[in-house]
Amino acid sequence: MTAIPGPKSRELLARKQAAVPPGIGTALPVFVTRAGGGVLQDADGNSLIDFGSGIAVTSVGNAAPKVVERVRRQVADFTHTCFMVTPYESYVRVCEKLNELTPGDHDKRTVLVSTGAEAVENAVKIARHATGRPAVVVFDHGYHGRTLLTMTLTAKNMPYKEKFGPFAPEVYRVPLAYPFRWPSGPENCAEEAAEQAIDMITKQVGADNVAAVVIEPIAGEGGFVVPARGFLPRVAEFCRTNGIVFVADEVQTGFARTGTMFACEDEGIVPDIITTAKGIAGGLPLAGVTGRAEIMDKVHAGGLGGTYGGNPLACEAALGVMETIEEEDLVARARHIGDTMLPRLRALQERFDVIGDVRGRGAMIAIELVEPGTKVPNPAAVQEIVRRCHAEGLLVLTAGTYGNVLRFLPPLVIPDHLLDEGLGILEKAIAEL
Ligand code: PLZ
After folding, report:
1. pLDDT for residue 119
2. Which atom of ligand 1 sits closest to the CA of residue 160?
3. Which CATH class is domain 7-60+329-432?
């Protein structure tokens, strides 16, 4: 209807700039008034196709009917008691569901908190308590949050860590099997990266000192890096033989996003602890830490918690999300989205050598842009494509350690014609560039 952003959004942006510090960025300054079915509507009456899902959150869509209905009922009944003061059933039900849905048929327990970072923090607390060991091992390109500990676990300095130190102690970083950028080529990547990682752990830290290895099964903010096949199983096996808690951070990859309920399932990994958030509750603040009962049960009574963790509105939303995923078979839908996007993006890669790599699984897909004919990161090309897509009404997000990755996270309920239209806008933007 108008230029993007339109006059009303510009006015609101001016107010934002006067009221909110610039530390809180804005990917696309259109102010949203309604959203659903893969479309965002803004204050100026524009409709934008949503390839971001609020960073992999609204997988079941915005204002999904089952989520709305459950939250509406709950908000009228009660909004908060604090689960640590007087409990309610929906919290327990969400934990039962997480224990059932996450990989492995062993006995499990779940703690609910409010954000992904809080889930990762708690996973580390629990692993340290259960093992009596201090060290935490994380990977290149990893992202785990913005709190002191999770910012320390995060790899990339700018913008996440710049001048926010000193950081938490006992955090060690090892290589990730990044096929596109592995020096000796993608064929050797899994084995060499695992060898280097394990060697660093044993030689520099000492396996006996490590409480937890924390890894995203697909690195999200780091650029949708799918570790070379075989890498994750090697690392998980090393953890098993050394009494190290293997923590899969599935905050971004979880809940059907990658075409399996959890991304770990793709290589048959059974994590000791799995962290979830984002897609779990359709945008209401909820996160989970699910782990082996014998690890989780070690922590003394009162050792874990938080005022809002497992808020009743968020728990009802999560139950609505889980019902929707099941009833609409969104796991299959995520695979269908990947099967639609990947061939079209690979065809683009054939035509344009600015696209160095096309990767991802299910509805978690990315392209990495390079200086043509090289592997030199090309963040300027990403910015230009994003600008063109936004102007044409397609919301896309960026990612990557080098800022040169375009990532696509459409809601799993996006209809085929919008997926097709969005891809058309993207293809045109790249072709024009
Ligand atoms: N672990 C794997 O992807 C959040 C960050 C957005 P919170 N990723 C989006 C930003 O720039 O702040 C994330 C993640 C993984 C943990 C987190 C942290 O989750 O809910 O943002 O705390």
Report:
1. 99
2. 11
3. alpha beta
